[in-house]
Design goal:
heterotrimer; A mainly alpha (about 120); B mainly beta (about 90); C mainly alpha (about 210); A: about 120 residues; mainly alpha; about 55% helix; B: about 90 residues; mainly beta; SH3 type barrels; five-stranded antiparallel beta sheet; 2 helices; 5 strands
Chain lengths: ~120, ~90, ~210
């Protein structure tokens, strides 16, 4: 049984060597994860396990920090730090706020990633 | 004192347990040679679940590319090295 | 993805115009996970699990670590045989000597020679000496690099413009545990008169991962 992240030796196309500067939100996601990690609430090992548990679909369709974010959410629920109800309510609140300020701009391809 | 010393011939266990495993599938069942001993480390298979202990010896194991990939395109001198915990390694005669 | 492209250009400009300016907020939020990330941050701050200042400090710390740190280690190893010996003996201690603390992982330096070339990958995720080199490049985290560099490393190196002769043994290091690898590239010929700072300026990130030579 091969888990989705265990890809050594699989056939793949050419490597795209272009640089990608992190977006603001990706830096935020990186910093948030580091801060949570420093509190002893998510080790790199737990993060990796959570990412692996997202499945093949997440590996192919989510970007790197989208997977990290999904893993952080999962881990906070598993550790009892947050409940899924709290997260869902806050997501709805943030989404509404961003819509009201005109900051939300989801393309159809992004909407397809909706769980 | 570690169980294996540099130069020891080893085979990676060909098992496929569920869970968080840091021994890549492409190395399972393959033969290699211990290149160095790194010391004893917490086991990631337990750390992944917020559990600790007992520590596991960690080795750098060297595999010939031509042993991993029969159709390998490159030099016969090329090697792949990976860091593998003691409980994934079987000794060879 | 179009949205990534847009933001790539956007951030690129900022980073070049103001290398020390804080990251600018994106104009638009594009995905559920971006909303989720904001939501998690707000919830964790409201509950007192983390503070906004702590998150900011980690972002600043990340931004402060660049490949130039690794380049200083390499240049010192080139000019100082005793340091070079200490680097191969205990990478963490040698990096700390130059003011680069590495926590939670063990740094192991591997040396390129006329006979041996080293290249580093993490086939299972994206393990990388972040405490010394900063965040890994996008290609290091890509499926193509991770899948192929253990299977056809010479072809992958060729895509980076690095052609190895068959006389050179290639060593691919798959970072499967808590060891982080730093490739010490070969010092280029004709650099005998350069001082340590000038040597460090020659050392590229890609040469310390091993996909390029200097």
């Amino acid at each position: 049984m091969r888990t989705p992240q265990d890809i050594g030796g699989l056939p793949e196309g050419p490597v795209d060597p272009s640089e990608h500067m992190l977006n603001f939100w990706e830096k935020q996601a990186d910093g948030l994860r580091a801060a949570v990690g420093a509190k002893g609430l998510m080790s790199s090992h737990e993060s990796r396990r959570a990412i692996e548990s997202l499945g093949e679909d997440a590996m192919e369709r989510l970007t790197y920090y989208e997977r990290w974010t999904a893993a952080l959410s999962l881990q906070m629920v598993e550790r009892g730090v947050l409940t899924q109800d709290e997260i869902d309510a806050k997501v709805a609140q943030v989404r509404q706020r961003l819509a009201d300020t005109g900051e939300l701009e989801m393309t159809p391809s992004e909407a397809e990633k909706l769980p | 004192m570690s169980r294996l010393s540099p130069g020891a011939r080893v085979r990676v266990r060909e098992d496929y347990p569920p869970g968080h495993i840091r021994t890549p599938v492409y190395l399972r069942g393959k033969q290699g040679v211990v290149e160095r001993y790194f010391g004893a480390f917490e086991n990631p298979e337990r750390l992944a679940y917020n559990l600790t202990g007992p520590k596991k010896d960690l080795y750098k194991v060297r595999f010939r590319a031509t042993d991993l990939w029969p159709d390998y395109q490159g030099s016969p001198k090329d090697v792949i090295e990976a860091d593998i915990y003691d409980h994934w390694l079987e000794t060879m005669g | 993805m179009n949205s990534d492209h847009h933001h790539h250009d956007h951030d690129h400009d900022h980073d070049h115009d103001h290398p020390h300016a804080p990251p600018q907020p994106d104009d638009k939020v594009h995905s559920y996970y971006q909303i989720l990330s904001i939501a998690l941050k707000e919830l964790l701050i409201e509950k007192g699990v983390v503070t906004a200042a702590q998150v900011r400090q980690f972002i600043e710390k990340r931004d402060s670590i660049t490949p130039a740190n690794g380049a200083k280690v390499v240049a010192r190893a080139w000019v100082d045989p005793a340091y070079r010996a200490r680097l191969f003996e205990d990478g963490n201690a040698a990096a700390a000597e130059l003011g680069f603390p590495i926590t939670g992982t063990k740094l192991v330096a591997v040396e390129n020679t006329p006979d041996t070339h080293n290249v580093v990958v993490c086939t299972l995720c994206s393990c990388y000496p972040r405490d010394l080199l900063g965040l890994p490049p996008a290609w290091y985290k890509s499926r193509a690099y991770r899948a192929r560099v253990v299977r056809e490393p010479r072809a992958v190196l060729r895509e980076f413009g690095t052609e190895l002769s068959d006389d050179v043994a290639l060593r691919v290091h798959d970072s499967t545990a808590d060891i982080r690898f730093l490739v010490v590239p070969q010092r280029p010929a004709g650099t005998e008169n350069l001082d340590e700072d000038a040597l460090a300026a020659l050392v590229t990130r890609d040469s310390m991962i091993g996909v390029a030579r200097i």
